[in-house]
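Dear support,

I submitted the protein below through the web form. The confirmation email said the job was done, but the results page showed an empty box. After a refresh the structure appeared. I'm attaching both so you can tell me whether what I see now is the final result or a partial one.
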Amino acid sequence: MKALVLLSVLLLSACAGGVGNGQNGGLATYDDLKAAQQKCVAKGGHLKLQKNGDVKYLDDYACEKR
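What the results page shows now:
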């Protein structure tokens, strides 16, 4: 049973979208947004706030392909 719960938690965490939590507990600071933008551009995309996202949280941004 414990293994099933652990597996479920791991699978759910792997499904999480967005650009990550950065260095400030998930808050979208200038430095974290800049780093996320650079990583996104390197992948050929652009950083965009997700629909109904909150600008204060880094995980509410996504790297979208152009």
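Response: this is the final, complete result; the empty box was a page-load delay. Helices lie at 2-15, 30-42.
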